[in-house]
Amino acid sequence: MSETPDIISPCAGEPNSVDTIGEKNPHPKENELAVLRKTNIALESRNFELREQVRQLRLQTAAAESQRDQYKREIKKLRDELNDYRSPPLVLGTIESVIDETHVVVRSTTGPQFLSRVSEHLDPKDIMPGTLCAMHLQSFSIVDILPPKYDSQVSAMEVMDTPDVTYDDIGGLEEQKQLLRESVELPLKSPRLFETVGIAPPKGVLMFGPPGTGKTLLAKAVAHHTKASFIHVVGSELVQKYIGEGARLVRELFQMARERSPAIIFIDEIDAIGAARGNDSYSPGDHEVSRTLMQLLAELDGFDNRGDVKVIGATNRPDILDKALLRPGRFDRIIEFPLPDEEGRRTILEIHTRKMNLRKTVSLAEIAGETEGMNGSELMAVCVEAGMNAIRKRRTMINSEDFAKALAAVKAGRTGIVVQQPDAMFS
Ligand SMILES: Nc1ncnc2c1ncn2[C@@H]1O[C@H](COP(=O)(O)OP(=O)(O)OP(=O)(O)O)[C@@H](O)[C@H]1O
């Protein structure tokens, strides 16, 4: 960046209307005007520089804020986990009748009724029939009152009418696309075909592979091409701290899918509820997890595989899954999502640079050769970072050097950038 130019005084160093030896300057006004013009140009250039600095700072602030939000989310998740470990699981129930200020009858979500004591720290005014409350597992005393609009379903599920991801947005994975089309798209689009041939279409598909390899992306693309609703749940969020709640959520999940059919239920991190458990160190929390899994199995067994609800599970840890999940009629198609090979990486780079202003000298094939071991998500980060490098240099064209730097930064894992919507940045 150039030095800040001093504001030039109209008189400094310029001929005056009367010069030093007293001779009259023939064009005093023109000289003054020239000096003012020069000052103006210097100020405009400085103004431009400052605007550029502000823009850069805004970009950096946005990246830092996004990083901060991500840390906040992680801290919250870890705090919640810690609290879960500290406290025994609570049972959810609804107050049926109030006997006196300290005793009520509660019906738990698991079925039975209890005569419960109300903890002293609760306000008796909040204790009334119909109130949702949390009970201690052993004593069944009421330890918490839940807000009327408490709805764990809302936090655990994300529902999209029809995602806008298409097969063209996915690089490589040709075999995986084909398998998923056969086992999910075809039965949804042409159920008659299966009837005529006399075979049952698969009920559930399990995707496995390292993170960032396009599992969620492909599931969304299938929903897009079948015009199905996409219901995204994360296994770990189905595991609730209230006994019976996980199972209730699973029931509601399938209920919602039937109401919104055709629908695809995508269960990410399915290992959080579907991991096989040893007999030792079986905690109350583990019981709640297996209750949730049992409900999932019951729902899978119960629904009609010719119907228009399909279930896709995804995991990075297929090795720890309970074999019960993989029995025929449950997740009976298993699709592996490996890290992309060189050709796959080139296609992924092409997809993520589609809207970017690349110099002709940028060779995506070469970059693909240098990104061995990277997943799709990291390749996208390389493209976004290369774009950022050009912006930092106030260029609108991205060159090979921008990519080289981006590659080094992503490999060193220090970009700290938002990698979700590169399109938005370059459109
Ligand atoms: N094959 C691909 N083609 C294009 N982009 C990809 C591909 N794989 C991953 N990506 C990019 O990486 C991002 C993350 O991918 P995705 O969420 O599908 O990974 P995932 O396999 O579901 O990961 P996880 O196991 O962590 O849930 C996508 O939004 C996309 O931008």
TrEMBL record:
Membrane spanning residue stretches: none
PROSITE patterns, per the entry: AAA (PS00674)
SMART domains in UniProt: AAA (SM00382)
Keywords linked to the UniProt accession: ATP-binding, Chaperone, Coiled coil, Cytoplasm, Nucleotide-binding, Proteasome
Function recorded in the entry: ATPase which is responsible for recognizing, binding, unfolding and translocation of substrate proteins into the archaeal 20S proteasome core particle. Is essential for opening the gate of the 20S proteasome via an interaction with its C-terminus, thereby allowing substrate entry and access to the site of proteolysis. Thus, the C-termini of the proteasomal ATPase function like a 'key in a lock' to induce gate opening and therefore regulate proteolysis.
Signal peptide: none
Species for this entry: Methanocorpusculum vombati
Domain notes: Consists of three main regions, an N-terminal coiled-coil domain that may assist in substrate recognition, an interdomain involved in PAN hexamerization, and a C-terminal ATPase domain of the AAA type.
Subunit and interaction comment: Homohexamer. The hexameric complex has a two-ring architecture resembling a top hat that caps the 20S proteasome core at one or both ends. Upon ATP-binding, the C-terminus of PAN interacts with the alpha-rings of the proteasome core by binding to the intersubunit pockets.
Region feature (Disordered): 1-29
InterPro entries the record matches: 26S_Proteasome_ATPase (IPR050221), AAA+_ATPase (IPR003593), AAA_lid_3 (IPR041569), ATPase_AAA_core (IPR003959), ATPase_AAA_CS (IPR003960), NA-bd_OB-fold (IPR012340), Nucleotidase_PAN (IPR023501), P-loop_NTPase (IPR027417)
Gene that produces this protein: pan
Major place of residence: cytoplasm
SUPFAM superfamilies, per the entry: P-loop containing nucleoside triphosphate hydrolases
Name of the protein in question: Proteasome-activating nucleotidase
Residues the record lists as binding ATP: G212, T213, G214, K215, T216, L217, H352
One Pfam family matching this protein: AAA_lid_3
Coiled coil (residue ranges): 40-88
Subcellular compartments: Cytoplasm
Family: Belongs to the AAA ATPase family.
